[in-house]
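Cross-posted from the bioinformatics board.
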Amino acid sequence: MAATLAEAQPGIAALATGTTSPGDPSTDPTLEPLPPTRKFKLSDFKRVRTLGTGTFARVVLVRPANATKPLEEEKNPEVYALKILKKTEVIKLKQIDHVRHERAILADVAGHPFITNLLGSFSDHDCLYMLLDYVPGGELFSYLRKYRRFDEPTARFYAAEIVLVLEFLHEQQGGVAYRDLKPENLLLDQDGHIKLVDFGFAKRLGYKDDRPVETYTLCGTPEYLAPEVIHNKGHTTAVDWWALGILIYEFLTGYPPFWHQNPIEIYKQIVEKPVVFPQEPVISDEAQDIIRSFCTIDRSRRLGNISGGAGRVKAHPFFRGVNWDDMLSRRHRGPIIPPIRYPGDDQCFDVYPEDDARSTAYTVEMANKYDRYFEDF
Amino acid sequence: MSLPEAYQHEIQALNRQVLQTCPSDILQFCADFFNSRLASERAASLSIFRDRGTPSPGFSPSPRFCPSPTSHFAMMSSQFSSPFGANSNPFGGSTSPMASSVMHSVVEEEENDNDNGHDHGHDRDHLAPGNPFFSGAFGGDASTEAPPTMRGPPTNDSYPAQYNFGRRTSVSAESLKPSADSYDNWTPPFTEKTPEQIERLKHAIEGNFLFNHLDDEQSAQILGALVEKPIPARGIKVISQGDAGDYFYVVERGSFDVYVNPCGFIEPGPDGLGNKVGNIQAGGSFGELALMYNAPRAATIISAEGSCTLWALDRVTFRRILMESTFARRRMYESFLEEVPILSSLTPYERSKIADALETQKFAPGDTIIHEGDPGHSFYLLESGEAAAYKGTEKVLSYNKGDFFGELALLNDAPRAASVVAVTDVKVATLGKNAFQRLLGPVEGLLRRTRYQGVKTGVEEMDPLQQE
């Protein structure tokens, strides 16, 4: 067996610079306090099953611990989605900042019609918890893959609801960038409306010394990354408009415009290649134009980022005929009505293994060093 | 862990069919069975599209979603699952994304190759080419008896058969904040190199998309930050497939073999490295994904000869160099812009958008930056160097770092009242009227928020570019 480089070069580990800010209290003197939420404890709930898993999080369907009736017999069951994050994984993956942003922003935006509502949050020795409304329709991703692609009225409906969410986050919430738009992060409620979930990368860009602050941390999903993120040029809320262009493309064709098995090849295409449309299915001129206008490398030309902001997006011909007031007040049901048999039904979600992979313990040393980041969760 | 109920239903139904039919070609039979199941499930689920005009009451399930106990090939299960979902393929197991990326990387060229469907050939025979699946499904005139199966595209060139339709995982690098924000001064690491080494390195990275957009200072800092890494012997693993990736490498001397194990990581045993798929010589590089975020290595790289040398660059250093210089430049632009009187009525947010859109241009000594008499379209900030304004041959003004000229072009298209010529090497940041308007809307409203004419700055008289 060949020797490893680390053995040959004992010094290599020391080369890794430890200059990142989260996790090292000394470099992060300003810890913004989190907005207050209702507190619960894990024993208040019992687990029904897992609804989704991520790199360091798991979302489970839960009921009150004292619930006894089978879920399908309950007319008005109390069911919630509980997002569970392991502290050790959060630390290992250097996501402390992101988790705090997620918790803070979810608390701030609770109540928006197209965003999952945060009902409470709490922590225990090993984990962080966020209690959210249960959205029973499952992921828009599942429907998109099942139907292969959406027709334009369907794509327009979802795109319009997303425009309203982005307008809210960017313009009414003081510059919140969402940064992970994709079909996997859009759920459908019982009436077929969108709920944006997973604010794990959302960030309030805010102002410092009265000027807006761009941000530099690369995050998102490879196919949906904006060119300025790949090039580390500092990015703003404009990344969400780029991603919306990719999303509409994927709605209409069934696959994103830039894809490859090797992520590096995706990034090369994003920074070097224009969006091209297939001959089949035929994409309307308005749809092609809005996709190209969003997926414009030059941010001084990108729709949504240019003057007029979201208002300009709403006025684009692709959205002609959309009644934005009706949209925001959810006056009409969505184009897909999820097959929900009873309020607590979980059949729209795929099945995930329930057993947790082994994980390292959250030690006293770690608690001493990191719990200050988690104590107000 | 128990198998999903829906899966057990499917398998039991398949068992019954196999017992009944005793097929000779088992695999073909199973494939047909599942394709048929998929087709009927899809036909049923499509009905919700057709039904969408008639709202069904709140929570009552669509009747077409009810399991039908009568036929094995009809709706057997009530479980809604995405056929392409990563975990819904009963035989998929937990394939690592790295493994699939490696396995499929060789077929990437076949995207539009009409012959690439041998292995799906059987399915494709059932498809009606040119009858795209979806138009019918939405139009309400779809024929229900034969919706295409999921395995083959409706037409060979309209749907990328190799696209991985599973859920996509988010990626994230460690969070970085500019040091100017946190008041700790940071200077990038620096390793002395000979001019020849610098040239070789430049050549090695010049075509790389992660480097080719950098400016001269950024490139110089990156080249300085690369660390020499002697690899003294043959057979040393520089990177191991599946391991965390933090470094990008350029080969200075020697050569390295590339091994890929289809399972996504090195397995125990003599063949654990997998197949040798390539060799990297001096001037080549590998591991660039590590400069973006920490992803598992896609291959194992082993020195193929004695006394090799590598240059290494870690992600945090790379990203930090780019971030610090971008951050510093933006703050410089913003502070310059604050000094421009006609922009004084802009909010910090608006100035930041302008700073974001400024483009750098360089001029050599003697170059003319703007010509007297030309229509004015752009405004300039002097980032470095010296320039002078001339009316005819008479020098009327000198410009230094932080000075600006031509800003009245943002207000009107009047011809330039003077020429501006670079005295030394000059770097300017420039913005056109069109870009300005795209970003902030009609200039008139913005720039005349405070009546420019009334501002006692002296700039109007000072600016020789503006005619009276």
